[in-house]
Amino acid sequence: MHGPASPGWLLVALCAATGAYCLLRMRSSDETQRRAAGDEALMGFGMAVMAVPGSAFTPPAWVWPVYAVLFGGVALRALWVVRTGPHHLHHLVGAAAMVYMAAVMTASPTAGHAHGGSGVPLLTGGLLVYFTAYVLVAGVRLLPAAGVTGSPAAGRALAWGDRPELARACRLSMGIGMLAMLLTI
């Protein structure tokens, strides 16, 4: 991605740490949580690789089309899973955003948007609005509810992979990472 190296490396660290935690979540006893964690781990690691500053490593030209195909496959899988419930729609939007960013990098790997006009392209703007709203809603969901005491497990200790507040924090950090990446293309 484009932009200064220091924030780029912070974004790489954030996305890689999120992907690593999602791998831990894959050890959950709940199958749907394991499947979601796998999708989120792939997204986290994919974002980490994509966010490596161009000043540190310039990937060969074939990397971006491969990324587009990989996340196109993820988007098709997410499209298939969306039929089971609208809560999977975010995975579809995230995968489509990764395809879009890879396509932009394929078209112009060093200069960002090469659309010739001024301003933000419509699709980038739409994705920025979506991920901004997602981050705000996800942030509010992390706030403790008024009057709630104790954990939802009612006294039983939850494993690291089964902690819902950590899963929500993981999704929030990936949403923030996606916003940062969209701002740099």
Describe the structure.
- Helices cover 66% and strands 0% of the residues.
- The chain is globular and about 50 Å long.
- The chain has one domain.
- Helix 2 runs parallel beside helix 4.
- The termini are close together.
- It has 185 residues and is mainly alpha-helical.
Characteristic terms for this protein:
185 residues; mainly alpha; globular
Q: What is the overall number of helices?
A: 6
Which H/E pattern describes the elements?
HHHHHH
End-to-end Cα distance, whole Å, is 7 Å
- Secondary-structure content class: mainly alpha
State the major sheet. Answer: none
Number of strands: 0
Q: Cα-atom Rg, whole angstroms?
A: 17 Å
The overall average pLDDT, rounded, is 83
What level of helicity do the residues show?
55-70%
Percent of residues in beta strands: under 5%
Number of domains: 1
Short description:
By secondary structure, this protein is an all-alpha fold.
Element layout with pairings:
Layout: H1 5-25, H2 31-50, H3 63-82, H4 89-107, H5 122-142, H6 164-184
